[in-house]
Design goal:
With 422 residues, the protein is an alpha+beta fold. It has eleven helices and 18 strands. Helix 1 runs parallel beside helix 3 and helix 2 runs antiparallel to helix 7. It is globular and about 60 Å long.
Length: 422
Amino acid sequence: MAPNDSAETTGIAADEATGTMAGRRRAARYVVPVAVAGVAAATIGLVPALADSGDPDLPKITAQQLIEKIAASDTEQLSGTVKISTDLGIPSLGGLAGSLAQGGDGPHGGSSADPQEKLTELASGTHTLRVAADGPDKQRVSILDSAAEYSVIRNGDQVWAYDSKSDEAYHATGDKASGHAEKRGGATTPDGVPTTPKAFAEEALKTAGPTTSVTVGGTAQVAGRDAYKLVIKPKQGGSTIGAITVAVDAKNGVPLKFTLSPSSGGKAVIDAGFTSVDFAKPAGSSFTFTPPKGAKVTEADDAKAQQQAGKRAPEFKVPGGPAGLDELAGGKGVKVIGEGWSAVAEIEAPGGRAIPTSPKSGDVPPAAQQFLDSFGDKVTGKFGSGTVFKTRLVNALMTDDGKVYVGLVTKDALVRAANSAN
C-alpha cells in the first residue's frame, strides 16, 4: 500500500474544489449528516457491505486532490448492487411505519408503494439494492428481499414505484417526479433518499468546514475496483460522529463505499457499498415500467388530496430524523447554538406549547409512544426538565416547556446547550 499523504484539508479548500459548498446555512452543519444517516422517517447491525479484498498499491494523492477527483467525476451511467446496513440503535421502523400510515382507515388510507412510506425500511437492518442510472433523468432503485421486490423508477418527469408483495403501484408526474433527484449517478430516489455511496459522500462533504479534518487513510479494493479512502472527522468533542470513511474509485472518482462510525465505538451506524458495479450504459428497459394487469395504482395527486382531507393519519416523524429538518434550518423559531459538528438547533414549539410525550395526552398513538419510550431519558438542568430521545447518531432534548434541542451530539452536549440558552 502506498504511503498516501494524509495531510489535513479545511472546509475552505473543499469549497473551492467542489464549487457547491459555499453559502451553506449554518444549520446545515447538523442537518446534512442527519440526511446522510436517515431515511424519510428517521435517516449497522453492521454486516459489512463488502469486505476489503486487498490494499492496492496506488500513487500518492492528497486529500485536496481526492476531493477534486470526486468533484470532477463525470460518470453519469452505472448499474450494480449495493448493500446498505443501518444501525441507529432504535427499534425497527417497518411495522411501526406501516401501522401509522394506515391510521384509523385501515390499509386503504394510503399506498404501500408510496416511496415516503416504503423507504422507511432502509432506516434499520441490512438491505440489498439493485441500482441503475443513465444521466440526470433516468434512475432505478430496487429493494430486494427473499420473496418480493420494491422498485422506484424515474424516467424524465415520470416516476413509478411498485411493490410486488402487495401488487400496488404509485405514480407521480412533473415536479412531484423530479423531487430531489441527484444530477449524477442516480444517487438518490426521487424523494431524496440516498441509495448509493456517491449520494452519501456528497452529503457528507457538504459539512466540511474549519471544524472538520479531511485526510487520506490508505487504499482499498471495493467491488473489484481499486480505491482511495477519504476520512472525514470532527475536530470538536461532543459529536456522536467518530469518522466517515469514503472509498473513492481510483480511476473515475466515483465513491464506492461509505461508512459512518460513531464516536461511542462499536458497529458502524451506516455502511453502504457496492458489491458489484458496472459503468457501462444500462439497458433502456431498466427505466420503463407498466403496471401489471390488476395492480392497484395510486396517483400522487389523489394521495395528497386524501391526506389533506384527513382520510390518512398524519405522518409520525422520529424526533431528530431528517424528515422536515430542511424546513427547520433557517426557519422561524429556530436558533443554532454552537457551530460545526457540535452545533445544536433550538426549536420553539408552535405557540410555545409543550410537546406531548405522554399517552395520557391523547396526542401520541400507542405504537408511537412505545417507540419513544424505548430510547428516552429524563434530564434536568437550568432549562428545567425534559426528555432526551436518543439514537446512536441523532439526539433530541424535548423540554417540558415546549422547546426542542436537536443535533448530532451526545446527551451531555444537548443538556449543556440547553443550559447555555437559559
